[in-house]
Amino acid sequence: MINENYTKIRAEYAVWLQTLGFSEKVVYNYPNHLHDFFEWIESKQIHHITAITQKHIEQYFEHLQTRPNKRRKGHLLSASTLNDYYTAVDKLLEFLHQMGMNQAPTPTNFRMTIDNRERVNNIQPFTQVEIKELQSHIENLYHHLPYTLKETKQEQLKLIFALYYGCGLRRSEGYGLTLDDIDFEKKTVFVKQGKNYKDRIVPMNGGVYKALEHYIYNFRHLQKLPHKRLFIHTTGKLNNSLQDLQAVCTTESIKTKRLTLHILRHSIATHLLQNGMSIEQIGRFLGHSSLDSTQIYTHLI
C-alpha cells in the first residue's frame, strides 16, 4: 500500500493524462506503473513527493532492469515494457512541473534500445491445431457455476476468439467495440480509433460471422446493460478466463505458452502468412501503418 500523498498524486496524474487526450490504455497503464514506482520509493523511506531526487529516479530505473517480471516468472522485463515504465515516470515529472513543483527532478528521456530479434523470440503464437483445441474446451468450463454465470463466461470466451483471433484486433480495439460496429449485411467490423487514432474496417469470414451472429442475437441482446459494448466483462476478467481455458488443456505445448488477447492477434497473422496471404494484405488486415511492423511474422515462421 502506498501512502495517502502518493495515492492522491496518482489519481490526479490519471486525470491529467486523460485531459491531455492520451489513449485509454495509457490512462490505465501509466498510473499502475506509478504505483510500482511509489512502492519502491516508500521502501527507501521517502514518504513525500518533494523528497524525490534525480538520483532516486536513476536508481529506480536501474532497479527495473534487474527486477523479475511479475507476470512471467523467471523472466526480466522486456525493453518495450521498461520503456513504458520510464515514460510513465517521465510523464509524472512533467506533470509535477506543470503543477508548479519546480524543484522536482527533470524528465530523463532515457529509453532502452529495442532489439527486434528479442521481440520475435518472445512471441510464441499458437498453431491452428492448438487454437482449435483451445476453442473445443470452452464448453467444458465453469460447470460448477450457476447457469447464467457459466453461460456469460463461455460466451465471452467465444467472443474473444472471434475478435482477437478471427479479426486480429488489438486489445483496446476489441474491447471498445459496440453493437453498432458490427455490420452483418456487409460482413464487416468497424474499428474506431485504432492505433495512431486510425479507423479501419475488418472483414468477417464465415466462422466469425456465425460466431458474432450467435453472440449478439442469442446472448448479448438479452442482456440489460447500461452500455452497448459487446463485452460484458473487463479486460482483466477476460484474461483470467483465458488462463482458466489454458489450465484445462492437456497438450503440453499449449500449457507452456503465454495465452493473452494479443497473442491471439499474433497467431492469426502467422496463420494467414502460412496460408499464402501477402504481407501487404496482412498489414492492412492488422491495421499496421508500416510494413516494418508486419515483417515480424515472416521471421516467426
Describe the structure.
This protein is mainly alpha-helical and 301 residues long. It folds into two domains: 4-114, DNA polymerase, domain 1 (Orthogonal Bundle), CATH 1.10.150.130; 123-300, Intergrase catalytic core (hpI Integrase, Chain A), CATH 1.10.443.10. It is 57% helix and 3% strand. The chain has 15 helices and three strands. The chain has helices at residues 4-19, 24-43, 54-66, 79-98, 116-122, 128-136, 147-165, 171-175, 206-218, 235-248, 252-256, 261-274, 279-286, 291-294, 296-300, and strands spanning 182-183, 188-191, 200-203. It has a three-stranded antiparallel beta sheet with strand order 1-2-3, with no helix packed on it. Strand 2 and strand 3 (200-203) form a beta hairpin. The radius of gyration is 21 Å and the shape is globular. The chain starts with a helix and ends with a helix. The mean pLDDT is 91.
Content of β-strand: under 5%
Identify the overall geometry: globular
The CATH class of the largest domain, by name, is Mainly Alpha
Kindly report the average pLDDT value: 91
Topology-level CATH name of the largest domain: hpI Integrase, Chain A
| End-to-end C-alpha gap | 44 Å
Question: Could you describe the largest sheet, including whether it forms a barrel?
Answer: 3 strands, antiparallel
Q: List the uncertain runs.
A: none
**What is the CATH superfamily label of the largest domain?**
Intergrase catalytic core
Number of strands: 3
CATH architecture of the largest domain: Orthogonal Bundle
Number of domains: 2
Number of helices: 15
Strand order of the largest sheet: 1-2-3
Query: Could you give the order of the helices and strands?
Result: HHHHHHHHEEEHHHHHHH
Rg value: 21 Å
Structural class: mainly alpha
Helix content: 55-70%
